[in-house]
Amino acid sequence: MNPDLDALKPYPFERLAALRADVTPPAGLTHIPLTIGEPQHAPFAAALEALHAHQADFARYPATAGLPVLREAIAGWATRRFGLTGLDPETQVLPVNGTREAIFAFVQAALDRTRPARVAMPNPFYQIYEGATLLAGGEPLYLDCRAENGFRPDLDAVSADTWRQVQIVFLCSPGNPTGAVTPFAEFTRLLELADEHDFIIASDECYSELYLDEAAPPPGLLEACARLGRHDYRRCLVFHSLSKRSNLPGLRSGFVAGDAALIAPFRRYRTYHGCAMALPVQHASVAAWNDEAHVRANRDAYREKFATVTEILGPVMEFPVPVASFYLWPAVPGGDDEGFSRELLRHANVSVLPGSYMGRPATDDRMGRPASDDRVGRPATDDGTGRDGSRATNPGRGRVRLALVAEAQATAEAARRIRDFIERRL
Fold first, then answer.
1. Which of 285, 304, 324, 366 sits a CA distance of 20 to 30 A from 413?
2. What pLDDT, in 10s, does the model give residues 61-109?
3. Are residues 176 and 143 in contact, defined by beta-carbon separation less than 8 angstroms?
4. What domains sit in the chain, N to C, each tagged with a CATH number?
């Protein structure tokens, strides 16, 4: 077997299952999970109708590139949403089976193992970035996202020597788990760094359509490129999905778009990978990308829940002001995110995800050291001590992730139970 499999860390939900294995919640309280980012709102009905109408197409093999009508629908949506002057559906768009599959596959196709192969990623992060990097023979470079920097990576804290070892930089905007949004100035700075050091920017934007201010949609990487006149989207790819936008996580439908010079070899890789999207799923996806009314209604529902939950929890928990995504990222009283999560389940039958499960301790060594030394991005030991004895901290520690995906009544009830639990402990 591939020896790099041994480098994979347990998935956060495996760790959560172990944490609560011997916990017995109160029998009189219904369990309310706020752990998994799986939308519970009704899926877009027209997409399901299209899926049914084209079910006979399950008898046909799909093409890797997808149907022209799907690529055109995607290109049209992205052009409208991000103010692009042109996105070629033939060469700059590729349908994929959700962002998770595409992110993992892209790293396998893109990483050059014959030279230093570091992949930068926000910390805490979506664990697929790390797993894809390790299985491709690369080395993660963890860029801490802390409160003092708006829960976004500090790009200027990374040395030129370190940037020269980087082949891919992952962004996640709006962020999982923090909800932070990358502003245009940071997109611009990262594009400058990519030009200088020749790396790819991979922007995971699967939460881009879940934002609280209807007048301020989060900017995207291709939008930043267009503003700068980079209409070839050089060195840039974005990943989008219908899972959150249209409440269709089981459809496994999304797209990758951007630099045609990156799309072409990735498409070639995928012809061998065997991951073409089923034709009925493609037709359902066309219906979803061509409609905005259901997306606005979805945002309204999340906006209502955020208002309710922040009013309930604001007096007892500190968290970033919600901007986008469907997560809250609160600090827990006392700073023990594992203990808080375990005892909350025991006393209130509400499940939350410890923030430390989504982050890694990494030695603060971004000024660039020789490759033989302990470099930034390598995990510290389990106790938070770097291999050279320096201290490291997990930027997720002391916080929990709350996924506000359930219906409004259940979400509000969970928030009330959390507040009651905290007030009883104080």
1. 324
2. 999 999 999 999 999 999 999 999 989 999 999 999 999 999 999 999 9
3. no
4. 3-43+294-425 (3.90.1150.10), 59-291 (3.40.640.10)
Q: Which of 281, 393, 292 is nearest to 337 (CA)?
A: 393
pLDDT in tens, 255-276: 999 999 999 999 999 999 989 9
pLDDT score of 370 more than 60:
no
> What pTM was estimated for this model as a whole?
0.93
pLDDT value of residue 45: 98
